Amino acid sequence: MDDPRLTPARPDLAAKYLEGKVKAARFVAGEEFEIAEAIAPLRIGPSADAELATQALLGERVTIYDRNDEGFAWGQLKSDGYVGWLPDRALAKPKGQPTHKVIALRTFAFPGPSIKLPPAETLPMAALVTAVREDDTFVMTREGWYLPRPHLGGLDEMADDFVAVAERFVGTPYLWGGKSSFGIDCSGLLQVSLNAAGTGCPRDSDMQRDGLGRLLGLAEARELQRGDLLFWRGHVAIARDAETLVHANAHHMATVIENTRDAIARIKAAGSEVRAIKRLG
């Protein structure tokens, strides 16, 4: 059965590229948009109180297949293929290609070339912007924002160590479906960190368990290396070394560094055993 999280298909409507593969009353080609808000919620239903599935960040592309009269649009993110409902207000027609991405945890967008001005917006790591002018201090974007030059990198700039990226999120509040330093979940932390290092990554922990790395024996939890991934049912953590891990979790309601044996014992006491250990590369 096709995963509904990654398959833009409903009984009444489906993406044109799925014609002949799924059943639907009609098939549509869809229309490409870009995310025009710093962070846009992608929900499982067309309602502001529907469960948050994930988030789309400024500059991301999305193919929209349906819109309703209540201000929601149904589509598929280009970055990781996730399907869901976005607020219409967060969508704009693409205006050229992005030139830079935010590499700081978050950065302020100033309305002029001065850090003393009240910020017009706050952008998260991995937000994409299009520069129209830059110097050693600021990058000016097409919106007229001035972003601190040290907080931006080129689209091909990659972090050397994805674990170090994850460690930067320590203290970030836990948010189901979140993928920014304003709030993040376990699989969002892994996805954002791997993406920052140039590695593609599915969105949810079960997809990550099935799609990333090679399987190690569970006994090898005693010999973990930096960057190994530990999976439980509905949870993932990143090994920092043989003894500690970093993960966003609802127990601490934050991203924390924790002793690996303590974490395994605590999660086991709560009713869940380690299901897989994966090694990248």
From TrEMBL:
One of its GO terms (molecular function) is cysteine-type peptidase activity. Gene3D superfamilies: endopeptidase domain like (from Nostoc punctiforme), SH3 Domains. Keywords: Hydrolase, Protease, Thiol protease. It comes from the Bacteria. InterPro entries: NLP_P60_dom (IPR000064), Papain-like_cys_pep_sf (IPR038765), PG_Endopeptidase_C40 (IPR051794), SH3_16 (IPR041382). Residues 156-278 form the NlpC/P60 domain. GO terms for biological process: proteolysis. Pfam families: NLPC_P60 (PF00877), SH3_16 (PF18348). SUPFAM superfamilies: Cysteine proteinases, Prokaryotic SH3-related domain. Belongs to the peptidase C40 family. PANTHER family: NLP_P60 DOMAIN-CONTAINING PROTEIN-RELATED, PEPTIDOGLYCAN DL-ENDOPEPTIDASE CWLO. This is C40 family peptidase. It comes from Bradyrhizobium sediminis.
